[in-house]
């Protein structure tokens, strides 16, 4: 008599918001789960998927997992549409309208019963849709735990009078109604969506509402680790007892691959980036020629645009600092378009001690010995990559969670400086020289301590390692849809 067939592995649908930062971290999670033997269906927007195929070669990477597949959907815009930083808000209704039918098709497929859905926590309508189909949802918030907690405390901030912010004169008022963070946040450090006088503003209502709705999910995943954001994570855990802090995901994946390497003489391949921009590797050759700890790396992420004034002030500040710099200037970095904003004397200075590229392999850059610090927009992925690399930061946040993250860098972790709400060449020069000069050793020591804690969390026996194991076991214990 033939032995009974082994049950198929659990099948997990992963559904991110169609934005570079969200897709990046959720693809890292997808790879971790696939590496653990789970079946994965990753729902990707046509626009993001098209760019990943061109610049990240994801199809070839994931062929190593025969049970991994992509499901491609439209975001309602043509591929050549110039998407703005908030385009997902304008396409939200369209994506929501097609999601129910999509999930029905996936759940009803007889050959791949669905065990659970890991959905972006900003898309909580999936909880209702999946509930109607009898499939549990695990929410994944790609922002910092501290920002998530600030959003969660929105009703309390309104009730206590911390919101609305009354004007510029109110920006440095301390916010006391975010429990566990009373000595950290000022009004200017709250998420950017809070900077409205009208509490009925659509975005201000939407994001905190989605955060509160997350309690209806079976569990919550955060791309952080307990030692990094302890106060916020402790508070979140009182509302989400089934909480998985498994970050920093980009480095956690490397740790898992290293642990499964067949021998020290054959190291595992490093996980590739999930960039939607073409990487210019000439910057690595340039860094190889620079002295140790002599370069400040400058990047404002994948969607931030600068107006002509800010662009010029950064140029002058970097050049006047006298420091070597590597600056990522995307083709669409300048809001008004065109490249004529750079005066000739600045171009000459770049030839002497600067390097400008359209996109850089950021993880590799941050780990390079020539790089001493990072001038960043404080996106959460970038912040975590800098933490893992042990590099101090100068923060110039623009939107969403970045205001909170920059305050963590300067005030909670003390690994850098925060220049939010200011863009002046003298301030840029002073900040750059702060992390590269007179306070370099102080910030470098603190950043080194954070990097050590991150390594411990992601090592076997560490908090993030254990939480990922627990997540995988919990998924295996779920009953698939019939």
CATH class of the largest domain: Alpha Beta
CATH topology term of the largest domain: Rossmann fold
The total count of helices amounts to: 20
Strand order of the largest sheet: 3-2-1-4-5-6-7
Biggest pleated sheet: 7 strands, parallel
**Mean pLDDT across every amino acid position:** 88
User: How many domains would you count in the coordinates?
Assistant: 2
CATH superfamily of the largest domain: Glycogen Phosphorylase B
As a percent range, the share of strand residues is 5-15%
Query: Which radius of gyration do the C-alpha atoms yield?
Result: 22 Å
Shape: globular
The quaternary state of the protein chains shown equals: single chain
Model description:
It is a single chain. By secondary structure, the chain is α/β, with parallel strands linked by helices. It folds into two domains: 278 residues, Glycogen Phosphorylase B (Rossmann fold, 3-Layer(aba) Sandwich); 157 residues, Glycogen Phosphorylase B (Rossmann fold). The protein is built from 20 helices and 13 strands. It has a seven-stranded parallel sheet, sandwiched between helices. A six-stranded parallel sheet has the order 10-9-8-11-12-13, with helices on both faces. Helix 1 runs parallel beside helix 11 and helix 7 crosses helix 10. About 2% of the residues have low confidence.
């Amino acid at each position: 008599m033939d032995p009974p067939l082994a049950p198929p592995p659990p099948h997990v649908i992963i559904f991110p918001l169609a934005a570079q930062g969200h897709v990046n971290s959720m693809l890292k999670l997808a790879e971790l789960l696939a590496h653990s033997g789970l079946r994965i269906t990753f729902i990707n927007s046509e626009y993001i998927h098209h760019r990943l195929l061109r610049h990240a070669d994801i199809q070839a990477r994931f062929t190593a997992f025969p049970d991994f597949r992509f499901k491609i959907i439209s975001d309602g815009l043509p591929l050549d549409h110039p998407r703005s930083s908030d385009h997902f808000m304008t396409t939200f209704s369209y994506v929501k309208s097609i999601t129910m039918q999509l999930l029905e098709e996936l759940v009803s497929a007889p050959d791949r019963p669905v065990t659970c859905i890991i959905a972006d926590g900003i898309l909580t309508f999936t909880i209702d849709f999946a509930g109607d189909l009898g499939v549990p949802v695990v929410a994944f918030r790609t922002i910092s735990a501290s920002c998530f907690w600030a959003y969660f405390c929105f009703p309390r901030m309104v009730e206590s009078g911390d919101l609305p912010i009354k004007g510029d004169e109110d920006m440095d008022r301390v916010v006391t109604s975010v429990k566990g963070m009373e000595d950290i946040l000022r009004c200017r450090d709250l998420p950017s969506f809070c900077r409205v006088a009208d509490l009925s503003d659509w975005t201000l209502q939407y994001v905190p509402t989605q955060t509160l709705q997350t309690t209806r999910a079976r569990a919550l995943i955060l791309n952080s680790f307990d030692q990094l954001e302890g106060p916020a994570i402790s508070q979140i855990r009182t509302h989400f007892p089934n909480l998985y802090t498994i970050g920093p995901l980009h480095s956690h994946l490397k740790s898992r691959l290293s642990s499964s390497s067949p021998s020290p003489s054959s190291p595992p391949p490093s996980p590739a980036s999930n960039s939607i921009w073409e990487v210019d590797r000439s910057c690595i050759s340039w860094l190889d020629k620079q002295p140790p700890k002599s370069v400040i790396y400058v990047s404002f992420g994948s969607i931030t645009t600068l107006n002509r004034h800010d662009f010029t002030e950064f140029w002058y500040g970097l050049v006047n600092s006298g420091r070597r710099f590597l600056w990522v200037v995307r083709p669409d970095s300048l809001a008004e378009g065109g490249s004529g904003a750079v005066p000739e004397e600045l171009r000459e200075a770049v030839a002497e001690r600067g390097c400008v590229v359209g996109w850089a392999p950021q993880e590799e850059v941050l780990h390079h010995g020539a790089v001493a610090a990072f001038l960043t927009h404080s996106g959460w992925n970038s912040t975590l990559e800098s933490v893992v690399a042990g590099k101090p930061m100068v923060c110039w946040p623009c939107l969403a969670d970045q205001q909170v993250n920059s305050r963590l860098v300067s005030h909670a972790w003390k690994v850098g400086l925060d220049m939010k709400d200011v863009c002046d060449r003298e301030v840029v020069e002073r900040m750059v020289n702060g992390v590269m000069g007179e306070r370099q050793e102080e910030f470098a020591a603190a950043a080194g301590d954070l990097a050590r804690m991150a390594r411990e969390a992601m090592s076997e026996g560490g908090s993030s390692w254990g939480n990922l194991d627990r997540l995988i076991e919990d998924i295996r214990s779920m009953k698939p849809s019939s």
